[in-house]
Specification:
Largest sheet: 6 strands, antiparallel
Radius of gyration: 41 Å
Shape: elongated
Distance between the termini: 51 Å
Number of helices: 8
Helix content: 25-40%
Length: 435
Amino acid sequence: MRESYKKDRCHSYLILEMEENFQESEYSIKMITYNQIPGLLKCEIRKMNGSISLYYDTTSKQSIAQIFERSSIQYEDIRQFLKGIRKGLESAAGYLLDENDFLLDSAHLYMDGESKEVFLCYVPGRKGNFQKEFQNFTEYILKKLDHSQEEAVMLGYELYRQAMQERESIDQIMQLAYREIHPRKEEKKKAKNKSSKEEKKENSKKITAEKEQKRQRQIDNAKWKKWGIYFGGTLGIVCLIGGSMTLAVYLRWDLTKFGGILAVFLAISAYTVSFLKNKKEEKKKDSQPGRRIVTYEGEKKQKDVNLIENETEEETELLPFGETVVLESEKKEKIYELISQDKEKGPDIKINQTRLIIGKMRHYADIILEEEHISRVHARIEQNGEDVYLMDLNSTNGTFVNGERLETNERRRLCQNDEIVFGGIIYRFDISSMK
């Protein structure tokens, strides 16, 4: 069974070309082609050159695999799946159709973008295994679950558990679609945890405030100590000079000579204090781990160099000088963007993810285009290395590249300045280098 897609002016089709040994079930074919069976995709049969093709109308619908390719399945989504499958099964039973002829997987279950109604694909004479395929579908749901939503997790795992039990009938399992899931909330435990968290938060704030006060007191004490040293030193110098002058007058010394001697003494004292201070600071710097001083030839400059821990000390190498060279990266990063030709209809689209879904359904699309001719899930952009590809996702009004309409699920590589149209919004594909 070969699968393809086709789109004409008003409709989109999923085409299943049957094998040569396909055994026609005349009754089943008449039922699905002559009737619009609720919950089933409308089908018509076409025969060409001895081959039989089934055309399923998928207009305004998307497969579940496409819709949830980038988004998670939530609680209401699971319920919609179950309601759609149940409706399809009940309708098929009313027309005496075999449930094992359904294609029950995410690629062939279709959802209407507006009503979120699910439609099944029925293939006459297929003779599959409904129960096994339904189990595989529940596994798909588990992989795509939104684990931040407790109701979705509980419903998804309960669905999987019941599907794996052969004694559970499909009718019983489908009842999960109508059962309200209320997560068990341990209010007392939550309240206790909340209270404990708030108490820890308050204690943490208190400890932080005490540490801040202690640090401020240390800073204030250090300031007062510093000013005390300055004041004491200044007072000592004034007393020393005053006392010396008084002594010189009393002993009738020559004040000029005495003043010169005193000035020399003060200069020597100041130099000694400065020398000891610098020595202390150098000793403090040298005692810091992970630093050493490297002297460059021809200059009296010093530079701190980070040392590797436990690295053996090596001789300092003399570094040669030369002209300064501007370093450039070997390869500039490229920026891919769809430039809107009408900013009022649609904004520019920066392609900064591996895959982007374009449409107007907020739960599923990455780029929202609020324009009436845009489908809810319209197109997909994929980036593979330096190549960017565009794919139409069975949109109603189509996706165009340089005036050519893309087939459904056709993957087209984009080139610089390609013109792209999404339902009347025109874009230009641009590749630029990051400055």
